[in-house]
Amino acid sequence: MIPQNFFSRLVLAAAAFACIALPASAAPAKAKPAPKGVVTVSNARESTLLELAIVSKNKKLEPEIVARNLESGASIKAKLPKTGGCLYDIDGLFEDQTTIQMPGLNLCKDATLRFTDQ
């Protein structure tokens, strides 16, 4: 015969275990910072991004193509040219013949390039 308070003890033990085990796994994850030297490129335009080049301010380095044929709604992570600096020029071309030229962006401060139709 099962003691009368057996199920009460079982429920209390399970609740105590849940209080101990769940807070560690249910804790909200902190956003991880972007790795240094990596930029996120997002295409929110309706046109495909045919090519995107990042040009270092170090004139000795060639422009580096970081994205090709990036469709609308897609995004990628790309490595920045290794220059030891943070300032870059951005040059891009979309399928609808729209060009992008953004000089002197600090990609160490904000490592996200998001293109929109605005």
Question: Can you give a write-up of this model?
Answer:
The structure is a single chain. This protein is an alpha+beta fold and 118 residues long. It has a domain at 38-115: Domain of unknown function DUF5300 (Immunoglobulin-like), CATH 2.60.40.2890. Helix content is 18%, strand content 39%. The chain contains one helix and seven strands, in the order H-E-E-E-E-E-E-E. The protein has one helix at 6-26, and strands at residues 38-43, 49-56, 64-70, 75-79, 87-94, 99-106, 112-115. Strands 3-2-5-6 form a four-stranded antiparallel sheet, with no helix packed on it. A three-stranded mixed sheet has the order 4-1-7, with no helix packed on it. The longest helix has 21 residues, at 6-26. It starts with 5 loop residues before the first helix and ends with a strand.
Mean pLDDT, nearest integer? 77
Unreliable segments of 5+ consecutive residues: 17-25
Going across the biggest sheet, name each strand in turn.
3-2-5-6
**CATH architecture classification name of one domain:** Sandwich
Structural class: alpha+beta
CATH superfamily of one domain: Domain of unknown function DUF5300
The 3D shape can be described as: globular
Helical stretch tally:
1
The secondary-structure element order is HEEEEEEE
How big a fraction of the residues is strand? 35-45%
For the termini, the CA-CA separation is 74 Å
How many strands, which pairing sense, and closed or not: the largest β-sheet?
A: 4 strands, antiparallel
- The percent of residues in helical segments reads 10-25%
